[in-house]
């Protein structure tokens, strides 16, 4: 299977760029930064169990109280917070952790399952032949999300996607959408001069309606009343869309619930998209409020760029949120043009403990295909590789620039040298430095990095705890042992 092999490659690649020296105590989860405070509080609560072998009533009460505070501060509603903590409390008292599983891990597993339960099971999104209507109040992220979704469908399912801009109120909406989708191959239909939205939709469907996926962006208002309501109903009738997605800004917190219900009554919302999760501490509130409305969360928006969208799956989302990492998400990041045989070869080598510069180079290429390290790192568990998920912004920037530099240096090496870096004594180092226009110091740096990575690779192979962790994240074992 390409997936798990890709993971090996990506992890290896990330690893090759980080030595133990780089590990920082700064905790940073690039995308879900806004909910970082929540994560810290949950970890803090669970930390109360540190060093305990047996559970006692007082500790359970403290844990429960502390967890409840964490939930309330992330804006979960009072009832949910109460229910969750009570269930965790009961689990701590009544369920015996499996042999070898620490109390902390046991508690973390309970919190994890409860959070996943609160956020609910997601709806399946059909990959082809869909018409999608985007609705929502003013400024919630409809247009941005329209572009993101169009590109998502194209990327994930190879679909021919068209979008129709039916917002006749926001000046420049067509321009905004076209700009975001520039170079993606998604066709954008719009009539910037036309004042009647329904007409644009009708014409648009005639023009691009045969596309595999058609997404229609609509206008927002301050509140859902009068004109907008009529306009929306008319558009919905003409579009006869198979999906009606409501876009909600996470900032609205608990108000997300009533908002979703109002729109649901109007157009029959089939899925909700919570945007701007990168920018608000109230994310927990919006997510949990929406998930109780019967219009499940289908995607979340985590930034302004076109790629900043994630298909919402509560288990993956929560494991990322709690810093347990998201191996499945990492697999999704792997480009489709990944050479499976090459991946297989590399994985075998890595597991055999051999690790050449060529391997490291292959991993670097892989990394650069995926894009920024931020994306990769945000999917890694905090505990993995001695806290690689916890690197600060500065460290990550450093890593990225190292990637570029190493590549240049390695381009000046022979295959033999890349296969066996131990050949690289001073005369060869001098030659490579000259050939690549770098300093000898930089070539040596690369070798130091390789040495360090090789050692970590060996550790990776031998680390049972980590292997178990990876297994559990890949769904091989239920026990999310955080070590
Ligand atoms: N940080 C962040 N910003 C976002 C996200 N989604 C949208 N935005 C920003 O939010 C602002 C409003 O987004 P739009 O897509 O124009 O919202 P809209 O709902 O189409 O707005 P109207 O058409 O005016 O109703 C823009 O500046 C977007 O860049 C997100 O997930 N994260
Ligand atoms: Mg808009």
- The helix-strand sequence is HHHHHEHEHEHEHEHEHEEHHHHHHHHHH
Helix content: 40-55%
Radius of gyration: 25 Å
Runs with pLDDT <50, length 5+? 1-31, 385-389, 469-483
Shape: flat
Number of strands: 8
CATH homologous superfamily (4th level) name of the largest domain: P-loop containing nucleotide triphosphate hydrolases
| Assigned CATH architecture of the largest domain | 3-Layer(aba) Sandwich
CATH class of the largest domain: Alpha Beta
Number of separate domains: 3
Through-space gap between termini: 27 Å
> What ligands does this structure carry?
guanosine-5'-triphosphate, magnesium ion
Question: Main sheet: which strands, in order across?
Answer: 3-2-4-1-5-6-7-8
Structural class: alpha/beta
CATH topology of the largest domain: Rossmann fold
Which descriptors would you attach to this protein?
Rossmann fold; binds guanosine-5'-triphosphate; eight-stranded mixed beta sheet; single chain; Four Helix Bundle (Hemerythrin (Met), subunit A); 483 residues; alpha/beta; 3 domains; binds magnesium ion; 434 Repressor (Amino-terminal Domain)
């Amino acid at each position: 299977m390409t997936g798990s092999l890709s993971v090996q490659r990506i992890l290896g690649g990330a690893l090759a760029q980080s030595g133990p020296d780089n590990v920082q105590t700064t905790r940073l989860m690039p995308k879900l930064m806004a909910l970082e405070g929540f994560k810290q509080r949950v970890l803090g609560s669970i930390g109360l169990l540190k060093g305990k072998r047996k559970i006692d009533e007082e500790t359970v009460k403290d844990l429960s109280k502390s967890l409840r505070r964490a939930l309330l501060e992330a804006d979960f509603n009072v009832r949910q917070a109460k229910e969750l903590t009570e269930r965790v409390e009961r689990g701590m008292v009544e369920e015996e952790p499996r042999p070898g599983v620490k109390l902390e891990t046991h508690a973390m597993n309970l919190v994890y399952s409860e959070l996943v339960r609160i956020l609910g099971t997601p709806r399946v999104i059909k990959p082809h032949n869909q018409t999608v209507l985007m609705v929502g109040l003013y400024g919630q992220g409809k247009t941005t999300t329209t572009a993101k979704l169009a590109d998502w469908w194209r990327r994930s399912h190879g679909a021919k996607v068209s979008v129709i801009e039916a917002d006749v109120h926001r000046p420049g909406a067509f321009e905004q959408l076209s700009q975001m989708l520039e170079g993606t191959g998604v066709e954008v239909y719009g009539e910037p001069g036309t004042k009647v939205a329904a007409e644009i939709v009708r014409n648009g469907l005639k023009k691009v309606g045969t596309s595999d996926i058609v997404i229609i962006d609509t206008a927002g208002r301050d509140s859902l009343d009068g004109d907008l309501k009529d306009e929306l109903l008319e558009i919905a009738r003409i579009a006869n869309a198979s999906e009606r997605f409501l876009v909600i800004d996470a900032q609205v917190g608990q108000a997300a619930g009533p908002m979703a219900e109002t729109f649901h009554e109007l157009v029959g919302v089939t899925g909700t998209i919570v945007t701007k999760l990168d920018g608000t501490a109230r994310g927990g509130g919006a997510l949990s409020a929406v998930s109780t409305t019967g219009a499940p969360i289908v995607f979340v928006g985590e930034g302004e760029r076109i790629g900043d969208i994630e298909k919402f799956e509560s288990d993956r989302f929560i494991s990322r949120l709690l810093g347990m990492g998201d191996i499945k998400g990492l697999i999704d990041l792997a480009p489709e043009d990944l050479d499976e045989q090459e991946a297989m070869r590399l994985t075998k080598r890595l597991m055999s403990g051999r690790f050449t510069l060529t391997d490291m180079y292959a991993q670097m290429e892989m990394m650069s295909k995926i894009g920024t390290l931020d994306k990769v790192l945000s999917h890694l568990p905090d505990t993995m590789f001695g806290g690689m998920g916890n690197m600060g912004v500065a460290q990550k920037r450093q890593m990225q620039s190292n990637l570029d530099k190493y590549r240049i240096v390695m381009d000046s090496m022979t295959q033999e040298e890349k296969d066996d870096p131990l050949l690289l004594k001073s005369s060869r180092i001098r030659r490579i430095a000259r050939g690549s226009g770098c300093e000898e110091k930089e070539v040596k740096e690369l070798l130091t990095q390789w040495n360090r990575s090789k050692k970590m690779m060996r550790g990776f192979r031998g680390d049972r705890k980590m292997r178990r962790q990876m297994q559990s994240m890949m769904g091989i074992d239920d026990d999310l042992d955080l070590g």
